[in-house]
Amino acid sequence: MLIAHVGPRVQVFAPAKVNLFLEIVNKREDGFHNLISLMTQVSLWDTLEFELAPAGILTLEVDVPGLDAGDSNLILKAAKLLCKEWGQLPGACIRLTKRIPMEAGLGGGSSNSAAALVGLCTLWGLATTQEQLQSMGAQLGSDVSFFLGGPASLCTGRGEICEPRPAKKPVWLVLVQPDFGLSTKLIYEGTTLAQSSHSPSDFLSGWDSGDFPALCASLFNRLEEPAMRIRPEIGLWKERLLGLGAGASLMTGSGSVVLGLFPEGKMAYKAARRIETDDSSGMVGNPGRFRQVQVVQTLS
Asked: Is 143 labeled as catalytic in the residue annotation?
C-alpha cells in the first residue's frame, strides 16, 4: 500500500490481490469458513484521496455509477470504526477512483477498507500500532488484515490470520474478467468440503524457491468447482489462457476473474493482445465476452 501527500490531501494506492492457493478447511459456527490461502498483492490499484473536513462530517465520492457510497460501504465503515475507537475526531472528505473490478475475487472492497484505515490515520495524525490496525481490520472483513501487511501472506482462519510469505521473485499474470460477476455468498454455499484438506506444501515450495514450473503445477482453488457449475465459462477461460502459453491458469478467490501465469512479461502482453483482438465468436469452446484484460505482476 503506497501513501503520498498532495498538498493538504493524503492519497493512498490500494492494491488488488489474487489467491494462488485456496483451500476451505471447514465451516465455522459463526457461518464463516476456515481456510488456507496464499494471497499476494498485484500491480493494480484503486486510489483513495482524503481531505480534512469539520468534525462530524464524513463524505465519500465514487467514480463508478451504481457503487454504493452510503453507510454500507467498507470505506465509511472503516472511518466510523476509527471514530468509535478514538472518540472525537476531525471529519474527512474521501474520494475513490476505482480500477479494481468488482465481483471479481480481487479484494477491491477489502483493500479500500484497509486503505481508509491507513489514510485516515495519516490525515488525522493518529499514532496507531500495527496491532491496533490489524484488530480493526479483522472487525471490518476477512481480507482487510491482509492488505494492512503483505505484499504476500499465507492466510488462515477466516483469512484474518496472516503470516508474511514474500515471493522469491515476481510472477507475471494475465487477468481476464468475464462479462459477469459472481456472488461470494452463492459460491461458498455451493462449495463441497473435502474429507481431507488439500495441502499447500507443494505450492509453498515452488513459491518460496521461485521455481516457476513447480509453482504452476501446484495452484489450487477449492472454489473453482462451484463457480464452474454456475458459470462454465470459467473453465473455458482457463483453457483459453493455457492455449495462449500460460504455465497454469486459475480462478482467483470466489471469482469471476481468471488468471494465467506467465514466465515473462513479453509472453503475458502478447497473450493479452491476442485475447483483446481475436474474434472467436461462434467458435466451439468460445468462452464468451469479457469486460477487461489486464497484465500485472505480483508485488514484492
From this structure: yes
DSSP letter string, 217-233? HT-EETTHHHHHHH-TH
Instruction: For the chain, give every residue range classified as CATH 3.30.70.890.
Output: 172-297
- Percentages helix, strand, coil for the chain, rounded to the nearest 5? 30, 30, 35
Q: Has this prediction a pTM greater than 0.90? A: yes
Determine the topology of domain 172-297 in CATH.
Answer: Alpha-Beta Plaits (3.30.70)
Q: Note whether 261 and 40 are within 8 A (CB).
A: no
User: What does the mean pLDDT of the chain come to?
Assistant: 94
Task: Write b or e for each residue in 28-48: b if 16 or more Cβ atoms lie within 10 A of its Cβ, otherwise e.
Answer: eeeeebbbbbbbbbbebbbbb
DSSP H or E run through 119? helix 108-124
User: Which one of the listed residues 68, 143, 266, 270 is annotated catalytic?
Assistant: 143
266 is catalytic: no
